[in-house]
Amino acid sequence: MSIKKYSAWIFSSLAAVFLTTLPSMAEIALPSLNLSMKTANSPQEFSQGIQMLIMLTILTLAPSILIMTTAFTRIIIVLAFTRQAIGTGQLPPTQVLASLALILTFFVMSPTFNKINQSAFQPYMNNKITQQEAIKRSINPLRDFMFSQTDEVELALFVKLAEIKKPRNMNDIPTYVLLPSFIISELKTSFKIGFMIFIPFLVIDIVVASILVSMGMMFLPPPMIATPFKIILFVLIDGWHLISKSLVEGFR
Is 33 a domain residue? Predict the structure, then answer.
């Protein structure tokens, strides 16, 4: 059976099951979800409530954590610089750039995620380690990745601002000091890459503007003439291929 026929079979089966259950669902009382607060009668109940609150907070901040501790920041900024340098306005759309940045982020971070899965998640799911040990093992691969992409100048700055003792090695640097150092380093690196991307397209703008002025066409907007040439240049050099390759190799 081909993939197309198999997919159609699955879809039709699910639709049939759903449609046949509609009459019976009308006779079944759906359960309701009640959220209530009560006094904790023991330290264990209080601890479980705090753990649930922490887990909900982590889930809420998951997108921010993904941005702060991975390659997403650099990739999305470089892609945005590329779109602005070409001068195509909202093409590609922001959703497309964000999706491409997310895919490249998972590609770059796959070795780190595999380490977390093997050293922390799988042992915890198999009840071989405790929750605290799983969290500790999960942080170490992310710290190694962030250290590999963080400038020493930024680390020294935030170590000084945190007013802590001079660290002897990477293990002595707290995570709350590493995080802002990593983000500032990523911002600096992405702006350097964006500047290099802007240069060839800026040259095209200058040349087109000079030609229009010399021909007396001062009222003709230079971007109207320069944008097609910039798009042709970007297509001829296979720009998306080069940028994706450079971004991925930059993290290795």
Answer: no
User: What are 63-86's pLDDT values in tens digits?
Assistant: 777 778 888 888 898 988 888 888
21 within a domain of the structure (yes/no)? no
Tokens 């009560």 belong to which residue? 38
Structural domain containing residue 172: 64-250
Residue 247 has pLDDT above 80, yes or no: yes
Q: Do residues 205 and 57 lie in contact, with contact meaning Cβ atoms separated by under 8 Å?
A: no
Helical axes 72-86 vs 94-116, angle rounded to 10°: 160
Q: Is residue 53 part of a domain?
A: no
> pLDDT tens across 151-166, in order?
888 888 888 888 888 8
In a domain, 26, yes or no: no
Residues in the chain: 252
The pTM score is: 0.69
User: What is the total count of domains within the chain?
Assistant: 1
C-alpha–C-alpha distance, residues 74 and 72, integer Å: 6
Please, what is the Cα angle at 107 between 105 and 112, to 5 degrees?
85
